[in-house]
Write a structure and sequence with these properties.
The chain is α+β, with helices and mostly antiparallel strands. It is about 15% helix and about 10% strand. The chain has a two-stranded antiparallel sheet.
Amino acid sequence: MLEQTGPLVTSSANHPGKPGSVTIREAIDYFDGRVDFYVDGGDLSGRAPSTIIKITDSGSIEIIREGAVKLST
């Protein structure tokens, strides 16, 4: 897919500051036709959100949101 689309950047299926969707049905309802393609990962209730990092111009890593993957800088 990435060969066709180029790089993709995404985190959880939610808008910043809003609760994430935990099922594909919630995600479809949440985005109301604005997303063209979904991958059903099953029911994600109780799972930690994704970890989001930023790699700065100097190459250091900044943790934006710590989630399922624990990192130390």
